[in-house]
Amino acid sequence: MTSWVQAYVDQGKTQGLIEGEAKGEAKGEAKGRRDMLLRLLRRRFGDARADITERIRTADIAQLDDWSERILDARTLADVFGTDRLH
After folding, report:
1. What does the pLDDT look like over 8-51, one tens digit per residue?
2. What is the domain partition of the chain in residue ranges?
3. Residue 87: what pLDDT?
4. DSSP H helical segments within the chain, as ranges?
5. Full-model pTM
6. For residue 46, is it left (φ>0), alpha (ψ between -120 and 50) or beta?
7. ∠ CA 20-24-30 to the nearest 5 degrees?
8. Number of alpha carbons in the 13 Å side-chain half-sphere of residue 64
9. Relative orientation angle of helices 61-70 and 3-45, to the nearest 10 degrees
10. How far from chain centre, in Å, is Cα 43?
11. pLDDT average, residue stretch 56-84
């Protein structure tokens, strides 16, 4: 392989590793926040219902952070997740 081709291949591998690492870190961060939110909910309200667990499983980090902050003042699950969404 010529040196410029090898350099291009190496650059692609490096970029792929960087992107893969970033995706892995983001997934790990989201999982940690999901786990923490579930622990907080369990401590405050008991085991989460399946529909709540599913919402948490599919939420993005911003939503998880919002719900986690709401727990501090929430009296009910509806206070955390919004009354219009818990039917």
Report:
1. 777 777 777 777 776 777 788 899 999 999 999 999 999 988 99
2. 14-85
3. 46
4. 3-45, 50-58, 61-70, 77-81
5. 0.70
6. left
7. 145
8. 20
9. 20
10. 20
11. 90
